[in-house]
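Sample entry (244 residues):
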Amino acid sequence: MASSDPNPEGKPADLDPRTQSSIFGRLRAYFFTGLVITAPIAITVWATYWFVSLFDTWIKPYIPAAYSPDTYLPFKLPGFGLVFALVTITLIGALAANLVGRTLISWWDNLLDRMPIVRSIYKGSKQIFQTIFSQKGASFRYVCLVEWPRQGAWSLAFVSREIDGSQVGLEAGRPMYAIYVSTTPNPTSGYVFFVDVAEAKILDMSVEDGLKLVISMGLVFPERPLPPAAETAAAPIANRKRLA
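Predicted structure, serialized as tokens:
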């Protein structure tokens, strides 16, 4: 008579290869889910701690002992160097807002302007910071697509500013863009070139979302693109008919 036992060899059901595969598959899915959640938190905490510790290492040795909280506390207080740097930079900015501060800064600029190598570094870095942190908002205007590095291949680019062709040695009255194409995943390195306005396709995407797309190597697309009305308002007059 045939045995009615579904497992005649006495093999436990838990050792079924299909069951094992299902269990390990779930554990692997749980692990990667936890990794996606914890890795950004860990990286953020590490980067914040590194940034704060960097300022403490640079600035704390120059703080007088009478003003350092480490003198009075039985433990080291992290972040005091960063706070001291922020207060000092703010005070320098306040000083530069009056006549005495502007006079001192002008004297300092004239002094560095007479040094052959130092003046190039100083002027270049000063112009970059003035452009980035200008209250007039002189930064990337919008995101666009350009056919680069060859025809038929489209690259994500950022429009730095609108220029006239005469500013780069071309014919006057020629509307052009100063374009920045960044590399992936490091957006701080890239290429700057100039194209006609008609050759740049303005995207309905914010600059922040464009940078995310570059840094993620094309994996992270914007969840909510720039509204068409906002895109039309941001685009230059020469492109409004083409975007309509």
